[in-house]
């Protein structure tokens, strides 16, 4: 979605009623963020809306990007937010071979997640349960981590459920929403 460099468009203040709606939607979509919501979106602070190309809206607090949304799609967290609260999102892990494809903006394919280096929910190799115990459905927002790396490299929307990925082991698994080094990551809001 953000393969090319992008420049921010018009910036406007979000009405308090809309801000409450966004906050409620964030808590509904990402319930694990509840303990941190006051730090992320304080009630007394002003949320800003930055228009981006291709009808994408970016919600920011001061100069910090929080969430983006394409038209009426799901609110997707910006990677800076994911890096601050990595345990508050559904996570999957790709193997080393898939990293370069993900960082070039390619759609994540199922073999990158189902190979020995990848991790999905209910994975027998996931001893501490870091990747969850519930299967994820198509359309859910997930954070993608890379084998051997500390921080997440991508956040996107599942095109296929994790249970189906384990069975089929091929096909498009996740649409690249936002990844390290893309136009959204390099966007200058200053």
From TrEMBL:
PROSITE patterns on file: PUA
GO biological process, alphabetically ordered: formation of translation preinitiation complex
Segments forming domain PUA: 90-181
GO terms for cellular component: cytoplasm
Pfam families documented for this protein: Pre-PUA, PUA
Biased composition (Basic and acidic residues): 120-133
GO MF term set: RNA binding
Keyword flag Cytoplasm: yes
Subcellular location as annotated: Cytoplasm
Cited InterPro entries: MCT-1/Tma20 (IPR016437), Pre-PUA (IPR041366), PUA (IPR002478), PUA-like_sf (IPR015947), Uncharacterised_CHP00451 (IPR004521)
Disordered as annotated region, ranges: 113-134
PANTHER family reported in the protein's UniProt record: MALIGNANT T-CELL-AMPLIFIED SEQUENCE 1, MCT-1 PROTEIN
Annotated family: Belongs to the TMA20 family.
Protein task: Involved in translation.
Name the UniProt record assigns to this protein: Translation machinery-associated protein 20
Organism this protein belongs to: Periconia macrospinosa
